Amino acid sequence: MILVLLGAPGSGKGTQAQRLMKERSLPQLSTGDMLRSAIQKGTDLGLKAKGFMDRGELVPDQVVVGLIAERSQDSDCVNGYILDGFPRTIPQAEALDKMLSERNAAVGRAVLFQVQDEEVVQRIAGRRSCANCGAMYHVDVKPPKKAGVCDQCGSNQIVLRDDDRADVVRKRLEVYRSQTAPLQAYYEKAGILRTIDASQSPDQVFQSLIRALQ
Ligand code: AP5
What are 128-145's pLDDT values in tens digits? Predict the structure, then answer.
């Protein structure tokens, strides 16, 4: 199945995509992770994307559409994949549908993670990630087993993401409302949208997600 996870910044898409990836053996295709990896490697794409991301704006559609078009051809995507943070605009959703129809495929389900802004701001303020491998933590909900050390790779670079500063988070929420929220109607019209309460605990959200896929 090709699955789209929709939701505001900090609504828990990445957390649940990682759990689903293990449960269903489907790869997680996160445009945010791909762009951060390009920035870390200092590629042209990374240099181009960094300014947009640091300001809380969206990277141009053609850049992210190109990333997904390429990554989704990899052999691990043959049985489907989880799109985390893509599409994020109507033109991206249309480009995805066009690309998939040329491959005789289609999005099977879009799941909208619903959560209040105050909860999102609190989650993002506590989020930390490993600058080396990208593993994600939260200072209260999911701290690393040993303070400051990544459980997955052992690095001691547990950091706050550059775009997780309060002013940038406010901008990201604004951008979400104006450019990404219209995707709810887009996928509702296609008859494939399910909405889940993402304000529950991570285990409860996961159960809701599994039900939404049935
Ligand atoms: P991206 O990396 O996609 O960020 P985002 O969508 O803003 O989402 P987040 O990663 O902030 O949140 P999430 O929903 O994954 O929540 P998480 O699971 O981490 O994009 C970053 C930037 O890249 C964009 O602003 C844009 O510039 C660019 N970009 C990316 N894709 C693009 C596209 N398609 N087009 C254009 N530009 C694009 O959880 C958050 C925290 O909460 C964590 O600490 C977690 O541990 C905790 N948490 C999770 N679930 C729960 C729970 N149930 N209860 C309590 N805490 C929880």
Answer: 989 888 888 999 888 999
